[in-house]
Structure formats: C-alpha cells, structure tokens
Amino acid sequence: MGYEEVVRQFDPWSSFLIKDYDKLFKAFGIRPLTGELISQLPTSHRLLRRRIIIGHRDLERIINAIREGEEYAVMSGIKPTGEFHLGSKLTAEEMIFFQKLSNKARLFYCIADVEAYNDNRQSLEVSSKVALNNVMDMLALGMDPRRVYVYKQSEEVRVLRLASLLSRDVTYSTIKAIYGEKSFGLYFSALIQVGDILLPQLPDFGGPKPTIVPVGVDQDPHIRLTRDLAKKHEKDYGFLLPSATYHRLVRDLTGREKMSKRNPMGMFTLTEEPESIKRKIMNAYTGGRPTVKEQRERGGNPDICMIYELLRVHFEESDEALRELYYKCKGGEVICGECKQLAVEKVLKWVDEHRKKREKVRDLAERLLIEHML
Amino acid sequence: MGYEEVVRQFDPWSSFLIKDYDKLFKAFGIRPLTGELISQLPTSHRLLRRRIIIGHRDLERIINAIREGEEYAVMSGIKPTGEFHLGSKLTAEEMIFFQKLSNKARLFYCIADVEAYNDNRQSLEVSSKVALNNVMDMLALGMDPRRVYVYKQSEEVRVLRLASLLSRDVTYSTIKAIYGEKSFGLYFSALIQVGDILLPQLPDFGGPKPTIVPVGVDQDPHIRLTRDLAKKHEKDYGFLLPSATYHRLVRDLTGREKMSKRNPMGMFTLTEEPESIKRKIMNAYTGGRPTVKEQRERGGNPDICMIYELLRVHFEESDEALRELYYKCKGGEVICGECKQLAVEKVLKWVDEHRKKREKVRDLAERLLIEHML
C-alpha cells in the first residue's frame, strides 16, 4: 500500500472503507487496544469487549487519571448536518462511557457548525436547529448534563483564536501530506478541530489535562495534526498530547460502504419512523443461503451478516444472547426471516424508548445550548 | 514586468519598493485619484493635494454617502509590533480624515494581534501592551472617540468566524496567485483581514454599508481578496464591495527603501527621544551638492531629497511654505544644513506637542480597549 493510498483510506471526508487496519495502525503509530489494557478500566462496555473500539493512542494517560482521581476531559462532537444515526450513536456512547468512568471527567461537546458550512455548505442557522436535536440525543443516550460544556465552533472565540494562532506552525506541505489535496476551507476546518481538541486544556478550563478523544479511525488525521501542534506548543501552553480511542468503520446495512448520510438506505436515524426502519432492516444484507432448505442444512454466515452486525454493535447488550444467536445461525437453527424479525423488534423497542427519553430533555438541551454548562 | 514580478512588488509582507505605479494600477484595476474626484470631497488634505494618496477603488461610493448623509465605515488598523512611526502616522491620518468628513462616519480600528503572532511571532500579551500605545497615538492624532469601534483580532469572534466561513470559498491556487507562496499562517492572517474589512457590514453594526479602507498600495492584495469574497457573498450577507484609497510607499530617510521597522535609521517613531530624531534627520539623504559653493551656484535637488520629502509628506502643512522651500532649494538660496535645521525644529515641535496630547488620553485609550466603544 503506497503512501497516497494510505492517505486516501484515512480520509475524514470520504466514504471509503478501510480494509487493513494493522497496516494503517503501524504506518501511523496507532496502537491496538489489548484485552490487558481494557481490563484496567473500572467498568467495561460492549464496544470494547466486542472489539468495535480497536485502537488507541496514550489511553494509559486516561487510565492513570482515573486511578489517581485526577481531572480529565472527554472531547468530541458532531457535524450538525442531520439527525443522529447509528454512526453518531457510536461516538456518542463512547463519549458518555468515558464521561461516566470518573466523577472527575468533564465532557466537551462541540457542534461543528463551521465544518458543516465549509464541507456541506450548510448555513449556521440550519446548524443551530439541528444542534438542538443532537444535544437532545446526547442527553437521551445518558450524557450527564452537570459535567459537560456544549458549544458551537462559530461562537467559541477561544477555539477560533487557537486555530488562527496555530495556523502559524502549519505548512501547506504538512497539511497536504496529512489530508491530501483539499480546499482551503477544509484545511481550515481541520485547524478548528485542533482548536476544539485543545480547548479543554486552556486556562479558562483549568489548564493542561489529559484528554480522551473517541473517534472513528478515519478521523485520525485530526488527531495527528492536533498532537503535532500540541507538541510544538508544549512550552507556551503546557499542552499534554491528547489521547484517543479508535473504532472500526461500520459498514452500512447494505454491507458495502462505510456508513454515511450519503446512502440513506444503508442506515437509519434514531428518530426515524418505525415503518421506515423496519423496511431498511428487512432489506439488509445477510449471510443467508439461497434457499431456506440449504440454510437449515449448511447454516448461515453471521460474520458477513449486517443484521448480526447491527445487533452486535448496537442493540444486543447481552454477550451471552449474542453468542447464542451466532451459533444458532451457524447451525441453521435460526434463519434470516426470524432473525430480521427479532432485530426489528429489538430496534423498534429501543427507538421508542429513546424517543420518550428525548421528549423529556428538550428544555434542558435548549438551556445547555444557551448557557453552555449548568 | 511578468506576473511573478508584479506579485512580488505587491507584497504586504515585504520591504520591496514599488517602481511603476501606472503599470501596477492597470494590472489590478486600481484607478488613479484625479483632481476632479478630490474636489468632490467636502474638505481637502495635504496628502491628497500633494499626491501622496494616488489611487482608489470606488471612492465615488463614499463621496456619495457623504453627499447623501448616509452612514459609512472607515476601516483600517495596525499590526501592534511597535510604536507608531512615520508610516503608521500616514494611515492614521487618512483614517481620521475620512472619519471627520461626515458625522455619519464610524471608524473601525483593528489591532492585528493575530497577524503579529503569525508574521512576527509576537505573543498576544506583548501585542496588548503595544496596542495601548497605538490607541493613544490615534487619539492624539485626532481620532474622535465617540464614533469608533476598537478591537483586537484575537478577541473579536465575529471577525474570526467570518474568516473561518469565508475560507470555504478560497482555493489554494487563488490565494497563491494573490500572495505568492507563503505559509499557511500568513494565508490565514490574510483571511482574518478580510473578516476585519467586512466586520462593519455585519448585522450587529447595522448591516451593509459603504466602507473606505485607506492603505498603502502594498496592501492591495488584501483589498482584492476581500472584494472577491464580498462579491461571492453579496447574496447571503448583502455585502457592498469595500472602497479603498492607496498611498505611495514612502522611502525612508536614507532614501533607499520602503519605510519599515526593519531599518531603524531610516525612520523614527512618534515617541522617540528628540536627540535620536535629530541625529536621524541630520543624517538623512538629501539632494545637495558636494560643496556649499557648488550648491549655491547650481542649486539643490528637492525631488530626490528626503528632508524635503519629510516636510512634504508629514510636517509642513502650508502649501505655500512648501512651494517656497522647493524653489529656494532649486535656486541655491537655502542649503542642506539650514534646511535640516528647519526640519529638526519643526519635527521636534510636532513631536513635543504630540507627546503632550498623548499623555492626556491614556485613560481614554485604556477604556476604549476594554469597552471597544464609548
């Protein structure tokens, strides 16, 4: 794999699916997330146990902060170009997991409205409306509103200032090497993300501290650029290099592409109509055989099945139930129609509960967007 | 003159002296400032009469606003990397002139501390201290504090936001064509200047309005980039294309280079010690002859004399006195020693008065930097 190809695979703005994690991790210095490291966290999470989160940088620094009862920041955000979907849910759950690991953790939740403007030509007004929905989803998913700082990039002068100042230390060739040939606006969006990630370490928020940034592996260019610039400003700002965890890119329901808002049949949002969700699940790509008879005899293939993937990544919390389903599928005991029905029931139940939780937090979300913190 | 050479001459960050204004003006669409246009302004100014200000873009729009009693903005600023010197005085006087032309004019005074950081590696703390001195100079030079908005780039979220959003519409090739090959930080400083120039037209300041930006001709790349981006956002923001006036680049006292902080013997600051100013004037490059005898016989050459230039551009308000000096020099009636003595007296008197005015406005300057406007 040539360098160009590596850069193309590691592209936060493309829908290209990564094929070989080991090679990418080695090329860029991401370390595999080992069972030993996972066991040092105070509680577990299905995304860790099931190897959806597969890599990290300096997670030890966060484990240490938890152990010592020291403050740390959890930093991530959302590009407010639509409702929460399965992909946003993944990052959201990771953020909330890290927020809950210690009462010294504080979540920084960024609404990337400048990136939405530069990458998607979406106005700040539209972003503002979508942001309310996104914050409601975060709260419904369990974000603790007492330990969070919520902001929009376009309104956070400290982020924009940091991006403007750090731009001094970025050459065109560096940024081109990291992101490939992109527009000036996207390059600057990248610098603003650097500002986002370093915001928790500014004096207004108590100065340098460990920071964990849970992202999909395609977002690593931002982490690399941030760590590079944090290192260049260790002396003046005292920045610690931010830590990160990386989850796999999840294929969509059609089984072919990186999940993306660009292919609506391959994913669904957390507030989508039940009928629509059902139809998408019923049409998902599975590991079934051409006939029921053949499937009963030879068994299905859960390893390539998007229904199994949906349950494994998102909707089946019980490891035991998941394992049982896996072997029943392999043994031909359960066939695709039954399994899809099970998935539809589980998902619609979850979505219904989520909808109810969302309704209760609308006022709180509005307040957070105005007051930034409680 | 090839394109590369044109770009090199029009470089806001170099100390290269422009040789052929006509060619540059034609290449970039700057129009010569005619006597007819000057006569349409309600009052005159020595910098206009003496053709120090030589070019403009859309000055008619400002003349019209004055005539109709409509609001307009005067926008410029300073990179706070040192005390006011003769060059900063020039731009300052132009700003103040345009501010005083109408009671509907409002001055926007920008402290370009992000540019000082990116171009000169100067910290925001140092810029903040220098800025106080600069605002004191502005007030001593006659800036009306009741119709001004003073701000630092690093603290004005609306400017940083505008720069971030407008970056979407800038390609690397466009910005390279305008500025030549520069660092990412300087490109972004340029975008922040675009934000500065368009700030007066944002809704918070009453929306779209004519804006005049008095600059040295070397700053035209900023004006061009701004007008290009303002045009692209005519629909969403309603921006009017900003107008500009251009002054010649003034040679320094040694007669050789564009006046610059980089060559301290060629210029002096408005707060410099009298002894030091005197020494620099006494050492200035003149149009004198090798011997006094020869000068008495053949006369001096005021056209190449930096003492004459100093009086013409800065310190002799009377056109008549200036004309008289010119012909006396040509006719050998006054020789360099006498003329230098006259210049020293005039300059030191001016500097002394300026110093006294400055002392009276320190509190006011401090207030403006905190409250931004009165």
Throw out a few tags for this protein.
homodimer, 374 residues, alpha/beta, Rossmann fold, Tyrosyl-Transfer RNA Synthetase, 7-stranded mixed beta sheet, 19 helices, 7 strands
The dominant shape of chain A is globular
Approximate helicity band of chain A: 40-55%
Spatial ordering of strands, largest sheet of chain A: 1-2-7-6-3-4-5
Main beta-sheet strand count, sense and barrel state of chain A: 7 strands, mixed
Q: Biggest interface pair, residues each? A: A-B, 32 and 32 residues
Helix and strand element order of chain A: HHEHHEHEHEHHEHHHEHHEHHHHHH
Number of helices of chain A: 19
Q: Give average pLDDT of chain A, whole number.
A: 92
Quaternary status of these chains? homodimer
First CA to last CA of chain A: what distance? 49 Å
Number of domains of chain A: 2
Overview of the structural elements:
The structure is a homodimer of 374-residue chains. With 374 residues, chain A is α/β, with parallel strands linked by helices. The first copy, chain A, folds into two domains: 3-249, 3-Layer(aba) Sandwich (Rossmann fold); 264-360, Tyrosyl-Transfer RNA Synthetase (Orthogonal Bundle). Chain A has helices at residues 3-9, 21-28, 35-38, 46-49, 59-68, 86-100, 113-120, 124-140, 157-166, 172-179, 184-198, 220-232, 234-237, 274-282, 292-298, 306-315, 319-330, 336-360, 362-371, and strands at 31-32, 53-57, 72-78, 105-111, 148-152, 211-216, 243-247. A seven-stranded mixed beta sheet of chain A has the order 1-2-7-6-3-4-5, sandwiched between helices. In chain A, α8 (124-140) packs across α18, α8 (124-140) packs across α19 (362-371) and α9 packs across α11. The A-B interface holds A 114, 117-118, 121, 123-124, 153-157, 160-161, 163-165, 167-172, 175, 183-185, 187-189, 191-192, 236 and B 114, 117-118, 121, 123-124, 153-157, 160-161, 163-165, 167-172, 175, 183-185, 187-189, 191-192, 236.
